[in-house]
Amino acid sequence: MTEKLYDADPYGREFDASVIKKTEYKGKTGYIFDRTFFFPEEGGQTPDQGFVNGFKVTDVQIKDGEIIHFVEGELAECATVHGVIDFEHRFKNMQCHSAEHIFSGLVYSTFGFNNVGFHLSDNSATMDYDGFLSDADIESLEFKANKIITENRKILAEYPDPEILKNLSYRSKKELSGPIRIVTVEGVDVCACCAPHVRLTGEIGVFKVISSEKYKGGTRVNYLAGFRALEDYRQKQDALLEISRLLSVKRGAEAEAVAALINEHQTLKYDYLNIKNSQIADKIKKAKESDSDYLFLIEASEDSEFMDFYAKSAREVFPAFSLFFGNDTEGYKFVIEGKISAKTAAEILRNRFSAKCGGRDNSVRGSVNLSKKELEDNFSDLSLLSEG
Ligand SMILES: [Zn+2]
Q: How much is the pTM?
């Protein structure tokens, strides 16, 4: 068993240890020390970061009480090594994890719901509960949690005697064996937990729920605490300032201004589509003046998004038409309609021109790689597609 130095001293940063052995774990070589300040990946929390003998620690895992360190370098068995943990990173984890205990304790005492899942990484933290929490519930609990933070209550981590433990009521996610570590937030929560915690709730600074959603019949709550919450606040503040600058609106009026902008955009888009539609209709009516009963048209690729407008207008005045949108380099999208059988025409287009197409009744659409000249040579009338 590795001595978990972080159990008694969550603020420790540097330590000396002996390399007990080199080991293989999930295809990687790692090292087990007699003692460590590195908290492994455990209980939903990602591992500590740092260095051992100047080598970067890439991962820390725990198996049967032995803590395995993976480092970017070779360590000799029996050697004495010096480890340094990234305490800034560790402290942020402590802030978030202690905040979770406060919130989960409040959820349990207020609603009787259990914390059934926990995940803590560098940029996100989630807590899952086996009951539904409304937005109002969450807002009220968030306020209470922050109040407890400001009250600077004590947080204790200890291994109680089995006799005391027997009569202790505490939250726990699973059946535990061996010595059980109990983390108590004074007057708020008692919970079995293996992770390092801050010693006073005031060190958490702030607790903020980011979002919540229904999850597996209960509720998943995304949150941040401490410096990570501050960083998130800073990013959101920057984004909001940028929006207010771009829209030239006062702080606090951003959402209203964005809604107005979307509204205006939709009106303009509607107007634009109407204009475009009537331009297309005019163009096609003009083509009809030649008194032909077949329309052959090649348009720029930008107009392919209006293919349906073109087809609709063409259908009104021409018994048959071929519409192509594109250019010689990128190929052409097309719709061909009237006086053809879709099935036969599609087959001919595929076999003769390797077109990708499909259709039904008397209408085929798809894409083809031909030149403008080839389109003119083959589709200036529909005789080719009417074969068979
Ligand atoms: Zn915990």
A: 0.81
